[in-house]
Amino acid sequence: MSEGTGARDSVEGKVVVVTGGSSGIGRASAAVFAEAGMRVVIAARNEERGAEAAHEIRSRGHEACFVRCDVTSPDQVRNLFARVVQQYGRVDCAFNNAGVSGDGRLADLTPQDFDRAFAVNTRGLWLCMREELRLMSAQEDGGSIVNNTSVHGIRTIFPGIGAYVASKHAAVALTRMAAMEHAREGVRVNAVAPGPVESEMLAASEAAVGGATTWRRLIPSGEIGTPRQVADVALWLFSAASSYVNGQAVGVDGGFLAT
Q1: Element containing residue 29 per DSSP (H, E)
Q2: Partner residues linked to 19 by β-bridges
Q3: Count of CB atoms within 10 A of residue 110's CB?
Q4: Distant-in-sequence, close-in-space partners of 168: CB < 8 Å, separation ≥ 6
Q5: Domain boundaries of the chain, sorted by first residue
Q6: CATH fold of 10-249
Q7: What are 22-61's pLDDT values in tens digits?
Q8: Which of 95, 118, 164, 236 is flagged as catalytic?
Q9: 114 Cα distance to chain centroid
Q10: How far is CA 167 from CA 99, 111, 115, 148, 258, in A?
């Protein structure tokens, strides 16, 4: 492949699994990956929205399917990847995007609140990565994994979201560990670390941390990001254009982490 080959050219035809693909960043990313010629498998708990997202992609002439999956269930995660392999024979890329918020001061959280954040954002991420790493390590040409973490997994600034922050720090650590353990098998593992992005989660954060209003004061650009801006970075991380990038958490944040 020549050095001038673009990101979209180098991912065409590859199979990508997108967890949490029924809404927000996941849904936008599935559409971006499909536009680039990737074969997209959308996984999510919400069957109606997930099937709708896959249908939208197919209506534009691209390839997509939906598999219902709760990433907190080892059996459902195994079933997801078994179905992907049954249909396509391989998994080239994975965007581990499923996540939940975790609002509340640490002293006020219940064990159930704390466990919920880690069940999805950390343990669920690991369950998916475990299957992806096993499959990709056995493939001659490896694969590429991108985890959706957060700027909160790199820099802690807001009180009142301790469980979420802790789970995202752990997600970044898992990313780096997996990259180190599987680099020689041709598997790259990176993360995107979004700042504020137009989404249901941002809107829901208004009460806890001030939402978009607070973020605009903290972002050098003063702008709230879009799901597509995150998706474009994930696509680049899948591509040959980023072939020497591994174990990184790339901020997609309008310059926030630079402040």
Answers
A1: helix 24-35
A2: 43
A3: 9
A4: 121, 149, 150, 152, 153
A5: 10-249
A6: Rossmann fold (3.40.50)
A7: 999 999 999 999 999 999 999 999 999 999 999 999 999 9
A8: 164
A9: 21
A10: 10, 14, 10, 12, 22
pTM score over 0.90: yes
Which among 33, 36, 70 has a CA at the least distance from the CA of 53? Answer: 33
Give the position of tokens 């790259």: 188
Instruction: Tell me the pLDDT tens digit for each residue of 86-118.
Output: 999 999 999 999 999 888 999 999 999 999 999
Tokens at 107, concatenated: 């002293």
CA pair distance 66, 45, nearest whole angstrom = 10
Measured from the Cβ of residue 247, the count of other Cβ atoms closer than 10 Å reads 16
C-alpha span between 89 and 84 (Å, rounded): 7
Find out whether 128 and 77 touch, Cβ atoms under 8 Å.
yes
Give me the residues paired with residue 65 across strands.
41
pLDDT computed for residue 156 by the predictor: 82
Q: Is 153 exposed, middle or buried (0-12, 13-18, 19+ CB in 10 A)?
A: buried
Active site residue 164: yes
Q: Which two tokens stand for residue 207?
A: 């009460």
C-alpha 68/C-alpha 77 separation (Å) is 10
Name the DSSP letter for residue 151: G
Cα 36 to Cα 40, 51, 113, 144, 167: the distances in Å are 10, 20, 38, 16, 31
Q: Is the CB of residue 152 less than 8 Å from the CB of residue 107? A: no
Instruction: Tell me the two tokens of residue 194.
Output: 């979004």
Question: How far is CA 75 from its chain centroid?
Answer: 20
**Contact of 65 with 54, CB cutoff 8 Å:** yes
